[in-house]
Amino acid sequence: MFTAKHVAASQVTIVMPPREAEDLRQELVSGQGVKAVWNVLSRLDVERAQASVTRDRELILQMIHDGPGAHKLNTVIAEHLKDWILEACEGHLLHALRDGAASVAVANLCSEVGGLLSDMGYLERARFVMEEGLRLHEGSGTLGSNAGADLLANLGEIHEKQGDLDGAAELYERAALCFAATSAPVPLDYAALKRRQGRLLGVRGDLEGKMKLYEEARHICELANALESTEGTVLLSSIGAAKRQAGDMEGAVQAYEEALGIHERLQTLESPEGATLLSNIGVARLRQRKKKAAKQAFERAMAIREKTGTLETSAGATLLTNIADVQELFGDAEGELRLYLQAKEIREKTGTLDSSAGAVVLSHIGGIYAKQGDSKEALLWYARARDAREKSETLETDAGAKLLAKTAELLSQEDRPKAAALLEEAWSIRKRSETLHSESGVKLLSSLCSLRGDMGEYEAAEEAWEAAREVVEAMGDSSTMPEV
Q1: What value does the mean pLDDT take over residues 13-23?
Q2: What's the predicted TM-score (pTM) here?
Q3: Which domains does the chain have, with CATH numbers?
Q4: Which pLDDT score is estimated for 134?
Q5: Which residues form the TPR repeats (predicted)?
Q6: To the nearest whole percent, how much of the chain has pLDDT over 90?
């Protein structure tokens, strides 16, 4: 298969017996099929393959080692198997939709296949089949069921990944109303909705609201004794990331370790969810300045993404940006830029560049050019990052204000009035988003004070200094007061 697909570029067709194909589809409908897919892809290892003749096996493995190598072969085969599995499931679903099938089972299959497509990075295809599932639920009057609510939540997540935060929020709210209308919502599905709603609040800068919803989701899982599940690991990983953002590294590591233990007991670490957890652990190690441990966690996450064919996804792009941070610590600017550009290409391909995460990638690329002294190129990337934040409605956040401040810093040497205007805009954003009372807020006001002073605008400079003094007093840390 490798030779035909990768070397000879031939068309390869894999045929699944009808009964086995139907078994896979039924597994998807029951919610167990996705786990089976990750198990198949993650366990693919040519070096463990057997042969009836031992000498033949040795010769084949030697050819592989002398040629592409086992890792390359496994990756190519996994990618092809992934596409085939998707084709088998999606093809059957599209055929059923063309034939006018309108059963609840088909609607549920839309949700499961859509989720699989989304996990693989095919967001537009996922959105299409989920919208078809929504149409079927509406037509059959089952949208108010648990399955209907879960589909709405899954569709909302796709909108969120694509940067449509308002659309995502609306779908999440509709899902919440549907769950509320059911007599007994499925705990894991309801908890997943709470987690997604919390994540959305976090993207918009409401970290307190995010953590509150995460804790509600955990409470739902614990009441149902369902924390030992894939959703439980995703939730704990999210809680860890939120605690890390809040500066609670001890709490973050504790949540990550709890999630890791569940994955190991369930034997589900070799999955996209496991890769995300390992990536989060890597970020935590970076914050602790444990570069070697971070690198090991990221490398393990990368191996899982390659095995499961999920590197070219939004989560895969995030992993690449995390690895780029390690390259920066090791002083490898060239490797750092290469990884960020690869992440940008993936986000372009998956339609997730105009998002908060996409803006992070674009901003980091600009930062690299700024360090290299290429202000013109850096400003172009910062402008693209701003555009992504405006499109995803995340400019009015802490991250958005930081982007404007970085842009102003570069502009201050050649266009002081424009730089000052950007700092004023960032100041307004921090006041509206309630993020002014922070070290970043004080730094912003200090920069504005200095810039206004250099421009001879002393009243404006004094206004910024007074604002900085008020923030410092409110924070109770006089050591952060800027010297002007």
Answers
A1: 68
A2: 0.81
A3: 311-317+328-395 (1.25.40), 396-484 (1.25.40.10)
A4: 96
A5: 233-266
A6: 65
Using alpha carbons, select from 385, 480, 389, 483 the residue that is nearest to residue 441. 480
Amino acid at 184: A
- Average pLDDT, integer, range 223-243: 96
Residue 58: other Cβ atoms inside 10 A: 11
Integer Cα distance of 276 and 256 in angstroms: 11
Q: Cα–Cα–Cα angle for 310, 234, 254, nearest 5°?
A: 125
- Whether residue 298 contacts residue 319, with contact meaning beta carbons closer than 8 Å, is answered with yes
DSSP secondary-structure letter at 130?
H
Q: What's the burial of 17, exposed, middle or buried (CB within 10 Å: 0-12/13-18/19+)? A: exposed
Range 293-302 average pLDDT? 94
Between CA 403 and CA 379 the distance in angstroms is 11
pLDDT-derived band at 269, boundaries 50, 70, 90: very high
**Mean confidence (pLDDT) of the chain:** 87
85-89 LR contacts (CB < 8 Å, sep 24+): 85/24, 85/37, 85/40, 86/116, 86/117, 86/120, 86/122, 88/16, 88/21, 88/24, 89/24, 89/25, 89/28, 89/33, 89/113, 89/116
Residue 401 has pLDDT above 60, yes or no: yes
Give φ, ψ of 92 to 5 degrees. -60, -45
pLDDT digits (tens, 9 = 90+) for 155-169: 999 999 999 999 999
Per-residue CA distances from 229 to 35, 233, 273, 357 (Å): 11, 6, 11, 27
117 near 350, Cβ under 8 Å? no
Task: Give the burial class of 264: count Cβ atoms within 10 A of its Cβ; 0-12 exposed, 13-18 middle, 19 or more buried.
Answer: exposed
CB distance 406 to 366 below 8 Å: yes
224: which 2 tokens? Answer: 């149902």
Helix (H) or strand (E) holding 228: none
Nearest alpha-carbon partner for 142 in 182, 172, 100, 96 = 182
**Closest C-alpha to 322, from 348, 272, 361, 359:** 361
Are 1 and 13 spatial neighbours (Cβ–Cβ below 8 Å)?
no
Residue 121 confidence (pLDDT) = 87
Q: How many Cα atoms within 13 Å fall on the side-chain side of residue 434?
A: 5
- HSE-CB at 210 with a 13 A cutoff on CA atoms is 20
* The pLDDT of residue 77: 67
pLDDT tens, 302-327?
999 988 888 999 999 999 999 999 99
What's the pLDDT band for 37 if we cut at 50, 70, 90? low
Contact 218, 188 (CB under 8 A): no
